[in-house]
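Worked example 2:
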Amino acid sequence: MTKRAIKLISGKATAVVPHDWESERVVLGGILSDPTLYRDLQSDVGTTREDFHHPAHQAAWDLMARLPTPDFLSAMSAAMQSEELAGQLGGVSYIAALPSACPSVVGVAARARALRAITVRRALLVAAQRIQELSTDVVAAPDELLSAAKGAIEGATQLQSAKTWTNGGKAAGAALDALVGRMRGEGGGIVFRWPKLTEKLGKMRPKKLWILGGRPAMGKSSLASQMVLMAAQQGIGAGIISLEMDVSECAERALCQIAGVNAGAVRDGEINQEQWRALQDGQEVLDALPIWFEYVPGLTLSRLRGLAYQLRLESERKGYPFGLLVVDYLQLMGGMPVGMSKNDFYGEITRAAKQLAGELCCSILMLSQLNRNLESRTEKAPQMGDFRDSGAIEADADVILYVYRPEVYDENMRPGEVDIGILKGRSGQIGVVPCAWEGSHYRFGEQVPERMKDERPKTIRRVRE
């Protein structure tokens, strides 16, 4: 195998970059001799431009991608028509000699697989150097360093061999196996305390991005806190990253929800002995649950990733599967590049959150503010367009919910009630689930009986999947 020492970064020590130019010539020569190999190698081996180290070989692969049929005559014709292209290819004579480098196409696939392995080694070398650079960074926060290191490794993991398609029978078998697991109560997922919500959406399953929106004072943070408690009470690790309330405020809300103590009395420090004992009991309950809180104003994407992986490790160390992460809330996140629009920035966040949910095999619930324009409408129940800079939210989220209390705008309109609205439910149903609002305890109560639903919104817009 031919190797050449090159300097990766100016001023740093040299490193040998793995490559095999002979095998690269064999693969390219084989394709020029038998053009069907071009597609076969991509589908069976996963061959890409990155598998070729020599610049001329990369240019040859690019040329084959542009040709209707990557045969010898077509490649020669293209090279002779452009001096610039001929120069990139190493000259017309170099292209003309490639087929002779491959006396038989029988071993071309094996050579291509060897090149793929070398490509992975090159990527690992770059990742290792990046991690070494991070180890000398004395400014970045630990979470940011770990997130960047993980990103460097992930760059190499993208270079996996080509995956084969799964036929219909195997795919259906996997679906039925998953169904059997759900019938046995396996497969994870968080059960809501409101049967109608579970009926419409099913369990809160892993690898999903949930968005919960609402205007201020509607109760979205309370609902998120309650969902985290529900997850923890079902033996599933859960956490809240708040960008506006510190850890003690988040815990105070959870204590009021568990103990049923008046939130105003707790806020003002005017509680009696019975309430104090209830709060102490609540502390013992929280101590026994797999639930965590963190306060990070100006949270960035890289810090979010670092904290999420840290929380999963902590949850699993305690013996609990990690299942739910709440971010409160989207519009307070920091790190927006100069010149980027808010819509693009929030889109970048929601796409990254969706990917992170898949990596961690958990649900991520992101809270979102709604535009104040809805308050000028007669019908104030939220709609999809009310989400601030919502273009990407609609596309990336698996489920989009809102909370709405009519009495905020009219004290005589369904006092003591709150709606959990479903604007989008992938593999679920849209609709509205009315509940009792126990504001003094920051709590969503039981579902409202049918006889109390007369004044709920009659229609709800369906989101196009």
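The longest strand covers residues 417-425. Residues 108-134 form the longest helix (27 residues).
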